[in-house]
Amino acid sequence: MSDSAMRWYVVHTYSGYENKVATNIEKAVENRKLHDLFGEVKVPTQTVTEIKDNKKREVERKIFPGYVLVKMIMTDDSWYVVRNIRGVTGFVGPGSKPVPLTEEEVQRLGVEQRNIEVNFAVGDSVRVSGGYLEGFIGTVDEIDLQDALVRVTVSMMGKDVPVELELDQVETLN
Questions:
Q1: Phi and psi at residue 84, in whole multiples of 5°?
Q2: CATH topology for 124-172?
Q3: Helix (H, G, I), strand (E, B) or coil at 72
Q4: CB atoms within 10 A of CB 76
Q5: Which ranges of 55-144 does DSSP label H, i.e. alpha helix?
Q6: Span 27-54, mean pLDDT?
Q7: Measured between alpha carbons, how far is 25 from 44 in angstroms, rounded to an integer?
Q8: Is residue 26 classed as helix, strand or coil in its secondary structure?
Q9: Under CATH, what is the fold of the domain 7-109?
Q10: Domain ranges of the chain
Q11: Residue predicted with more confidence, 166 or 68
């Protein structure tokens, strides 16, 4: 099966067992040679600055304590493997039915990094191709690949107005 058939599922674990569960899922996939059913296994973390005893230090914190994200194709075998890992209490979903994350949820959670290529740069003239300013022409002031946004200055009624748009709402002028 193709990688595109894989979806992200949320697995509930005992608190503090997230990393162990992720490692054990990866080992089970390796041992049972189920690579075609499983993609990535992630424990989402963020780096925060902690001040303790007047000392600053960077600490990794779990964004969703008690949860592990697994990209997989849901079959009886894959469900059984994950469900029977020590520390797993079940999949997130109504009853015992696992529900995959939607594309929007995956993007909002920042689970997958998507490589975004833009064919314009700061200072280039672009046409707004979507949204309420469709058809306007402006100049690119800033490109934010992290959040997939672009800041463009457009001229409206004789005034330059900076607007923030999604990257797919602008196109280069031919």
A1: -100, 15
A2: SH3 type barrels. (2.30.30)
A3: strand
A4: 7
A5: 76-83, 103-109
A6: 89
A7: 16
A8: helix
A9: Alpha-Beta Plaits (3.30.70)
A10: 7-109, 124-172
A11: 68
Q: How far is CA 91 from CA 1, 53, 95, in A?
A: 22, 40, 9
Average of pLDDT values for 13-26? Answer: 96
pTM of the predicted model as reported, rounded to 2 decimal places: 0.64
Residues listed for the chain: 174
HSE-CB at 129 with a 13 A cutoff on CA atoms is 11
116, pLDDT greater than 80: no
Beta strands in 31-158 (DSSP E): 38-42, 45-52, 55-62, 67-72, 88-91, 125-128, 137-144, 149-156
**What SS3 class is residue 97?**
coil
Q: Which amino acid, 21? A: V
The contacts of residue 149 (CB under 8 Å, 6+ apart) are 143, 164, 165, 166, 167
